Amino acid sequence: MPALKLFRTATGWVVEREAERFRLPADLTSGLTTRDDLSPFLANAVSRLARADDIALAHLLAPIERQEVWAAGVTYLRSRTARMEEAQVASGRQFYDLVYNADRPELFFKAAAWRVVAPGQSVRIRRDARWNVPEPELALLISPAGRVLGYTAGNDMSSRDIEGENPLYLPQAKIYDGSCALGPAIVVSAETPAATTAIGLEIRRRSQPVFTGLTTLAAMKRDLAGLVEYLYRETSFPDGCVLLTGTGIVPPDDFTLEHGDEIVIAIDGVGTLQNVVA
Q: What CA–CA distance (Å, rounded) separates 137 from 242?
């Protein structure tokens, strides 16, 4: 089955298949991203729709409806190392080492749907933080029943100085207005991305690259299915959920974002998410 991409626009959902675009009518979009059979449903819908190649995708909304966004931490060795470096006390460094090696992953709430930033829009850094970085991550769209429906790119903005001061400050370091971006589309697939899938980050300042980084899913210690299973233990998601799966790219300790920086996150087979820092 050809890959399907699901875009959200101001006038509704659009499906793209092999560069052909189809506008989904309103009667097909109720609860669209909470279905357990999204891929065959969309394929069947596309077979009955007329092409609408005049659809412009210049001003997209974040590809999310009512889902909560959660995130997994310390899933890559680089993330573990960075967390240990930023921790200001020895007990904090031990804390992250234990999390990395434990069976149970770190999972935390990241954003309500209405807080999620769209492609091309502005993410933010906290006014009370001095050390801020983006975190490029593969994001999973998960159904209410815990089935992975598709994938998109995510940016888990993080205030490293706040979290490093005390691990209990994690919510303030991670959860604030403009701290999460998703997009540009949901790649609808029941297949897990290959371990060789590359995730890249470029940060531009005044149009010039000031940081680039690259990793692959092979560098992730935890598997995607295990993260989903732990997230859905004892917790229900009536509208489904989006899960950010952690980062393997962390800028050096002497780097912090500035207003006006452009953040470009590219994931093979998934897409490129671009945002500016407000």
A: 12
Kindly write down the DSSP assignment for every residue of 2-31, as one continuous string.
--EEEEEETTEEEEEETTEEEEPPGGG-TT
Sequence letter at residue 176: Y
Task: Say what the pTM is.
Answer: 0.94
Residue ranges and CATH numbers for the domains of the chain are: 68-277 (3.90.850.10)
d(CA 136, CA 164): 19
**Which parts of 17-72 fold into alpha helices (H)?**
38-47
CB 140 within 8 A of CB 242: yes
Give the whole-angstrom CA distance, residue 57 versus residue 257: 28
Chain centroid offset of residue 57 CA = 20
Closest C-alpha among 77, 71, 72 to residue 220: 77
Amino acid at 5: K
Place of tokens 């749907």: 113
Distance from C-alpha of 84 to C-alpha of 80, rounded to nearest angstrom: 6
CA 58 to chain centre: 20
pLDDT in tens, the chain (278 residues): 568 999 999 989 999 999 899 999 988 998 899 999 999 999 999 999 999 878 888 889 999 999 999 999 999 986 767 666 776 655 566 777 788 889 999 999 999 999 999 999 999 999 999 999 999 999 999 999 999 999 999 999 999 999 988 889 999 999 999 999 999 999 999 889 999 999 999 999 999 999 999 999 999 999 999 999 999 999 999 999 999 999 999 999 999 999 999 999 999 999 999 999 99
Residue whose entry in the numeric block shows the structure tokens 């996150």? 265
Integer Cα distance of 35 and 27 in angstroms: 14
